[in-house]
Amino acid sequence: MPKHERRSRALLVTALTGFAFAIHGYHPCAEDGGLYLAGVKRLLDPALYPHGAAFVLEPMRYSLFAPLVATIVRLTHLRLPLVLVALHLASIWTTLFAAWLLAARCWPSRVARAGAVVLLACWLALPVAGTALVLMDPYLTARSISTPCMVLALLSVLDLTEGSATARLVRTRGAVLWLGSIALAAAMHPLMAAYALGASLMLACARSSNERVRRWATVALSATALAIAAGLQLAPSPESADYRSIALTRTYWFPAAWAWYELLGLAAPLAILAMVAWQTRRHAAIAERALACMSVAAGATAWLVATLFARAGAATHLVARMQPLREFQIVYLVLVLILGAKLGESVLRRSAWRWCAAIAMLGGAMFAAERSAFSDSNHLELGQASRNPWVQAFLWIRDNTPKDALFALDADYINASGEDAQCFRAIAERSSLPDYSKDGGEASIAPELTIAWKSGQQAQQSLTHAAAADAAPADAMRSAALAPLGVSWLVLDANVATSFDCPYSNAAVKVCRLR
Questions:
Q1: What digits encode the pLDDT tens for the residues 148-169?
Q2: pLDDT tens readout for residues 192-234
Q3: Left if phi > 0, otherwise alpha if psi is -120 to 50, otherwise beta: which for 107?
Q4: Three-class SS of residue 490?
Q5: How many CA atoms lie within 13 A of 204 on its CB side?
Q6: How far apart are CA 482 and CA 252, in angstroms?
Q7: Which distant-in-sequence residues (6+ apart) come within 8 Å of 44 by Cβ?
Q8: Under 8 Å CB-to-CB from 324, ≥6 apart: which residues?
Q9: Highest mean pLDDT among 262-271, 311-320, 463-472
Q10: Around Cβ 271, how many Cβ atoms within 10 Å?
Q11: At what angle do helices 190-206 and 211-234 cross, to 10 degrees?
């Protein structure tokens, strides 16, 4: 490739990285970003989170993500927020660059490649059906690193299966890249690495020039996945009634519990990709058809496994815990690349105004969706003063309470109006009783956390009791439920009646000492 083409490719990817960052926002302490961030902070300061540390440490049990981030902070002596945003930008850039390389294996036209990567940049925050995943989160997590690794693994398989006899160097480079990508993804997020491994094996089958090999190797891989799921389901794995009650709250595990439009989010991509594979059937060796066939086979297999074994009424929820429908992250990514390439070749072509209009329309829709999801938070949370009253309260707690304090909040605070899914532990840097949403997700994956999670839920039910005329009975209930657990501080709704000393309050919440 000429030097000027390499330079223009790098410039395009860099520009699209800034565009994606600006469109999709940045919320480092929200959702799963807050879970991982609390673990990083615990590694950097072991005095943090002395109570309920199991919920802080759980995301680190099978992942080296938090130790990696903490090590970078120590080695570079940079502030943690700067390291987080730098890694987040690097993950977006690497994903888009890998997507460009993958597109280059599929389409010789530059407008097709540009269309594929531009659409991906516009739709990075696209929800993946009802799996509770998006293509890339607006914060840094282990998936931020496993996602570009997944794209690189697919790219390397295309190089490994290159049919030219003179492509030995390409195949060797592909083998090294494949091993490195899968290994790094496994170190960061083993579950997503497993799905990337399955997809890359199916892609290798789809690249075969022998139709019988393609067909029967794919069937064999699908049958193997079903057999593994059946073995896990039949293995003795007794579940307590308390754990089952937690598992059933994770509705994204069970496709039977999804809304019709979420199921459509599974069926429609497979139908579109099957159509692409059918239309290109006369050119069985081309990479586009191989990617489409792989996506259909991998997605259909994941859906079948989830339908058969990820059921709410099953005797054990081990397969459901593996969330096989996460395979659709790969399906969606391939779909976006193919749609973008078709858009670039057939509609946008070399018309500058068409490109500008398409980017404005597609990016604007995702920007509006992001602002709706984080309506009370800064679009780019880069250390400036927050306008979110919940975050303001959490920051006051960080600066004005002892590190060994234990807090209680409404168990479902993360879904409260205006809270924007901002995680208490990551921002306040204080211990808290487990919440319903994020800590419930951890307990559903790690059954040993069941008792602690249920105890925290029961204790925090008393927080919302309010007496308009006399707060004493409600305060007595709170003290009786929370004091035995060692709780020393409360975060209450601003309208809840209490006689406790509340040194901080704003329009949303107040922070009170528990007597």
A1: 999 999 999 998 877 655 467 7
A2: 999 999 999 999 998 887 788 888 999 999 999 999 999 988 8
A3: beta
A4: strand
A5: 17
A6: 31
A7: 70, 73, 74, 80
A8: 195, 229, 302, 305, 306, 310
A9: 262-271
A10: 12
A11: 150
Amino acid 4: pLDDT: 63
The pLDDT tens digits for 425-481 are: 999 999 999 999 899 999 999 999 999 999 988 888 777 655 444 678 888 888 888
442: enclosing H helix or E strand: helix 438-445
Amino acid at 513: R
> Judging by DSSP bridges, how do beta strands 406-408 and 489-493 pair with one another?
parallel
CB count within 10 Å of CB 6 equals: 10
Phi-psi region of 310 (alpha: psi -120 to 50; beta: other; left: phi over 0): beta
Q: H helices of 25-135, where?
A: 31-44, 53-57, 65-76, 80-106, 110-122
pLDDT per residue as tens digits for the range 239-257: 888 899 899 999 999 999 9
Extract the runs of DSSP E, i.e. beta strands, from 351-499.
Answer: 406-408, 431-432, 489-493
Collapsing DSSP to helix, strand or coil, 380 comes out as: strand
Nearest in space to 45 (alpha carbons), one of 74, 16, 20, 18: 74
Q: What phi and psi, each to the nearest 5 degrees, are found at residue 389? A: -65, -30
Alpha-helical (H) ranges within 280-409 are: 287-309, 318-322, 328-343, 352-373, 389-400
Q: Are 65 and 188 within 8 A, CB to CB?
A: yes
pLDDT at 207: 86
Measure Cα distances from 119 to 60, 108, 364 in Å.
33, 18, 12
CA–CA distance, 49 with 409 (Å, rounded to integer):
15
- The whole-angstrom separation of Cα 45 and Cα 55 is 16
Please name the residue that has the structure tokens 């709780």. 487
> H or E element: which one contains 510?
strand 509-513
Q: For residue 2, what pLDDT is reported? A: 62
pLDDT at position 160, please? Answer: 85
Bridge-based pairing state of the strands 431-432 and 489-493: unpaired
285 band by pLDDT with thresholds 50, 70 and 90: very low
Tell me the pTM: 0.93
Contact 464, 477 (CB under 8 A): no
Alpha helices in 349-416 (DSSP H): 352-373, 389-400
Residues in the chain: 515
- How far apart are the C-alpha atoms of 5 and 142, rounded to whole Å? 32
Q: How far apart are CA 242 and CA 247, in angstroms?
A: 9
